Amino acid sequence: MRPKIVLFGDSITEESFMEGGWGAALAHHFSRSVDVVLRGYSGYNTRWALTVVERAMEGVCPAGAVPPAAATVFFGANDASLPDRRSGFQHVPIPEYQSNLRALCTYLKERWPSTVVMLITPPPIDEDGRLKDASGDNSGLPERTNESAGAYAKACISVAEELGLPVIDVWSKMQQVPNWEKSCLRDGLHFTSHGNSVLLDEVLKKLADEGLSLDTLPPDLPLFSSIDPSDPLKSF
């Protein structure tokens, strides 16, 4: 049975199978080696994710099957919504955010002890892009700020270090890209094709660091190039 990589997160994960998305590109990269399983829930914060994680993971790995090779946990963009603005109902304070991340990672590790659980920080925020996307909001204030997202990114990294888990600091990495606000983000939060490629590169690097790459994961069934044309069936 092929190994699996589970993507668990909010809208940036849910959208990752769109054209140019990092999840679709990941599935293409491992097309003969791994099944990529999408569990993305637009708008969700860690409080809601913790409530539904057991249901979300049902069917991912049937009893007796090989556990997933890896799982990404990518929440925080909604937790970091400012509590006094239009998306305040999504806000989760940093101490609870960290507690929820610990609980989510612990749940996954207890369910699948051999699975590599990888945290991804919330991305940076282009506040100008959020204002332009704020239809019907006349406050003139973005509901998210880059400063707040950065605080949650640091909190995510802290949890990963505490638990000894790999982490991708996409908040910092993306801001190293020239003109990242428009190059990487289409609405101040969600990714452009280039933003998706930035995250994909980091995911592939981290997976390789954990021993999960095309060099270590064999292709499923013989490659066409290895089939003997004089007796094809013997290859199977």
Helix and strand arrangement:
Elements: E1 4-9, H1 11-14, H2 22-29, E2 35-40, H3 46-56, E3 70-74, H4 94-111, E4 116-120, H5 127-133, H6 146-163, E5 167-168, H7 170-174, H8 180-183, H9 193-209
Parallel strand pairs: 1-2, 1-3, 3-4, 4-5
Can you walk through the features of this model?
- Keywords: Hydrolase.
- One of its GO terms (molecular function) is hydrolase activity, acting on ester bonds.
- This is SGNH hydrolase-type esterase domain-containing protein.
- It comes from Canna indica (Indian-shot).
- Belongs to the 'GDSL' lipolytic enzyme family.
- This protein has 236 residues and is an alpha/beta fold.
- The protein has one domain (4-235): Rossmann fold.
- Helices cover 39% and strands 10% of the residues.
- The protein is built from nine helices and five strands; from the N terminus they run βααβαβαβααβααα.
- A five-stranded parallel sheet has the order 2-1-3-4-5, sandwiched between helices.
- Strand 3, helix 4 (94-111) and strand 4 form a beta-alpha-beta unit.
- The longest helix is centred in the middle third of the chain and has 18 residues, at 94-111.
- It starts with a strand and ends in a 27-residue tail after the last helix.
Task: Write a concise keyword list for the protein shown above.
236 residues, 5-stranded parallel beta sheet, 9 helices, 5 strands, globular
